[in-house]
Design goal:
By secondary structure, this protein is an alpha+beta fold. Helix content is about 45%, strand content about 20%. The chain has a domain at about 30-150: TATA-Binding Protein (2-Layer Sandwich), CATH 3.30.310.70. It has a five-stranded antiparallel β-sheet. A hairpin with a 5-residue loop joins strand 4 (about 105-115) and strand 5 (about 120-125). The N and C termini lie far apart (about 55 Å).
């Protein structure tokens, strides 16, 4: 009996350690892009705009590498494309129990260059994240995950669109209002 209990405890500890070590790899997706940082961001923006039937709107474009450069640092290019779908956000924002998940809004997709010279796209694993918050949120975030894959589905035969340089949130400060959450 003691061996069974010891084995059970060792198994739980092993699972806990493995979850701790590999959780980050499951929470985010990384995809290589065949294009440069700005062109990839522009293509993602165009794909998001093409999904207005699912409520998607661009919320902004951030360049965190500029802040580092302004502070005297030097980093490779990084852009964050932000979008939100009122179709998916409204049910979560209407409910007291899920309103805290507004911290995940807008949906951010990062495009960055690595030292190997290649461009990558990073996204939160929305489907996995949603399942952690129950059935309702899991279903909604499952749809978000499906849409995210459409955001990064590029037709290389189509010419690159222009990058839409907007500030997050739209409105004042000279930025163009683009909608979103």
């Amino acid at each position: 009996m003691g061996k069974i209990i010891t084995g059970f405890i060792v198994g739980i500890v092993f699972i806990g350690v493995m979850a701790f070590l590999f959780a980050g790899q499951f929470m985010f997706h990384e995809h290589e892009s065949p294009f440069g940082v700005e062109e990839t961001a522009a293509r993602i923006q165009r794909n998001i705009q093409g999904m207005g039937d699912k409520g998607w709107k661009l919320s902004g474009l951030r360049d965190p590498s500029k802040a580092v450069a302004a502070a005297g640092g030097n980093v490779l290019p990084v852009l964050l494309v932000e979008a939100c779908s009122t179709k998916y956000s409204a049910p979560m924002l209407k409910d007291d129990a899920t309103r805290i998940l507004s911290i995940l809004m807008p949906c951010s997709i990062t495009i960055y260059k690595k030292d190997n010279g290649k461009t990558y796209i990073g996204m939160m694993n929305a489907g996995l994240m949603g399942r952690m918050f129950g059935t309702k949120v899991g279903e909604i975030m499952g749809h978000v995950a499906d849409d995210q894959m459409e955001f990064i589905n590029f037709d290389p035969d189509k010419p690159a669109p222009p990058l839409i340089k907007t500030r997050p949130g739209g409105g004042g400060g000279g930025s163009k209002e683009v909608g979103g959450c």
